[in-house]
Design a protein that fits this description.
single chain, 312 residues, alpha/beta, Arc Repressor Mutant, subunit A, D-Maltodextrin-Binding Protein, domain 2, 3 domains, 8-stranded mixed sheet, two-stranded antiparallel ribbon, 11 helices, 12 strands, 23% strand, transcription, DNA-binding transcription factor activity, transcription regulation, LysR_subst-bd
């Protein structure tokens, strides 16, 4: 059984079409159909349902075949990459996944050092939601992602980067929806940063959260759940910066990681308050367990760890 047959079946599975698969593979569609027919005869099973006018779907046997084929092709690619790296060292490509706020804070200084040391590596940054990045990383389509715990996909391995505190963000001016305690603090001469309150004091306030699919949304929801309530969601966004802008205009409150404060241009018009439970989030490097971790990816982790150790 030739490797190209695995590639053929996998491309049909991905595109749900013999015609599209043939185009992507740069072969004639009748030739592709003939090769799949031979493969099915060799295995004595049908791999795909063929119904005119409908997308091509795998049979139960076909689904098992394409999933195993995907693993075999990844193993082939990993072996090829490892042997090449042993010969040529750190070079080639590195695909790094992250959400916008995390990547925007951590990656620029890290990549500056990386490119100075390894100028021959072509880096591709992939900014997506946490949910999307988990899928891409687990499928081996991203070499390394920077995400926050928890990571519950058993296909993935994690390596801890850092733990940072979370802050509740309020507008500079008092609003009717604010708890009385907060209004009193804001009216006093004591800086709001010097006060801490329990999250449950904000149970009746409008919350601004990240959209479904972002890991930090889950972090905030779990924080509220520990306070015994579900937040009243006023707005949802895919950007922590947009969330803070909405807060600035008095439309609700939000919660941000510490790095969100450092990146924010709203520090003079927003209040950042610590909560008495001292909530945190932990960032990790995430990569596929069963896939070869390239020298390119390992070099990035090593540079980060060296920089982190030099700060302590």
């Amino acid at each position: 059984m030739e490797m190209r047959l695995f590639e053929y079946a996998l491309e049909i599975y991905k595109t749900k079409s013999f015609t599209k698969a043939a185009s992507h593979l740069h072969i004639a569609q009748p030739s592709l159909s003939k090769q799949i027919d031979k493969l099915e005869q060799e295995l004595d099973v049908y791999l795909f349902h063929r119904k005119p006018g409908y997308p091509v779907e795998p049979t139960p046997d076909g689904f098992v075949f394409v999933k195993q084929a995907e693993k075999i092709l990844q193993m082939r690619d990993d072996l090829r990459r490892e042997i090449l790296e042993r010969k040529e060292g750190v070079r080639g490509e590195l695909k790094i996944g992250s959400t916008a706020i995390t990547g925007g804070h951590i990656l620029p200084p890290l990549l500056k050092i990386y490119k100075e040391q390894f100028p021959n590596v072509c880096i591709e940054l992939i900014e997506e939601s946490t949910e999307k990045l988990l899928d891409l990383t687990a499928r081996g389509l991203v070499d390394l992602s920077i995400l926050s715990l928890p990571i519950e996909d058993s296909r993935l391995h994690t390596k801890t980067m850092l733990t940072e505190p979370l802050y509740l963000v309020l507008p500079n001016e008092q609003k009717q929806w604010m708890p009385e305690k907060v209004k009193q603090i804001m009216s006093s001469s004591i800086l709001i940063k010097q006060n801490t309150l329990p999250i449950e004091d904000f149970a009746n306030c409008p919350f601004i959260l990240l959209k479904q699919g972002y890991g930090f949304r889950r972090t905030v929801l779990e924080l509220c759940a520990r306070g015994g309530f579900g937040p009243q969601i006023a707005y949802e966004t895919s950007s922590i910066e947009t969330a803070q802008s909405l807060v600035e205009h008095g439309l609700g409150l939000t919660i941000v990681p510490e790095m969100g404060i450092h990146r924010s241009s709203y520090q003079t018009s927003l209040h950042y308050m610590k909560l008495d439970s001292n909530p945190t989030r932990t960032l990790v490097f995430t990569y596929k367990k069963e896939r070869y971790l390239s020298m390119n990816a390992r070099a990035l982790i090593e540079i980060y760890e060296k920089q982190a150790n030099s700060r302590y």
